[in-house]
Amino acid sequence: xxxxxxxxxxxxxxxxxxxxxxxxxxxxxxxxxxxxxxxxxxxxxxxxxxxxxxxxxxxxxxxxxxxxxxxxxxxxxxxxxxxxxxxxxxxxxxxxxxxxxxxxxxxxxxxxxxxxxxxxxxxxxxx
Length: 127
Hints:
This protein has about 130 residues and is an all-alpha fold. It is built from five helices and no strands. The longest helix has about 35 residues, at about 95-125.
């Protein structure tokens, strides 16, 4: 049972799109709300994307780059806070964290795609 769970977790980290599809499908069946299901699946998949990018960086260059990833996330939170402050909007921590988390989804999904293409190209060249 433990091997199955670890294998499933490894598959979701390796292919985060699979995680998004599974979470979206399950929440869509439970809640019957497309928008809520989409946003919840996006929120859950962000974690898998961050871990996937970290492992892709480790596989390609031999370093996980954990601290730069943490710094990027923190700088994004600082930037969003600054933007809300300049727009004279309410600076609520949950709203800032949610916005940063969803922007991280876009950032890390783009990073995941770029690293996959980069890794494939350079693996083919090395053959």
